[in-house]
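Hi everyone,

Forwarding the result from last night's run.
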Amino acid sequence: MKAQLNPYLNFRDTTKQAMEFYQTVFGGELATSTYAEFHASEDPSEADKIMHAQLNTEGGPLLMAADTPNSMEYTPGNNISVSLSGDDEAELRGYWDKLSDGGTVTMPLEKAPWGDTFGMCVDKFGINWLVNVAGQPA
């Protein structure tokens, strides 16, 4: 198997809702495991937290996430973005529409100076997304 680079997102108590949302965006099969299922925490308040979630999609994107344990620092920020790119404009616009719904568009999805169609948004769970639709070759 070739090495893969996959986004792994961390949340504080909203992983289940976030991953169910991403499943509505990308489709695919979602698998989740709680801290209780793996006996991974002695803190009873963490029993239903998601220790690992994985969304496998037919189109290829793989997204993983977890709830940060109470004992670990969690500081949401703007130091990471998840990028979607390709040449299927209909597919990418569909993702864009769903990801930006209920979130904040920071740059509209429109023709960019480099010839592609590009946009940026922050979804309703605070994740930054970059969407780039490849332009037609000159």
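DSSP finds two helices and eight strands in the chain.

Cheers,
N.
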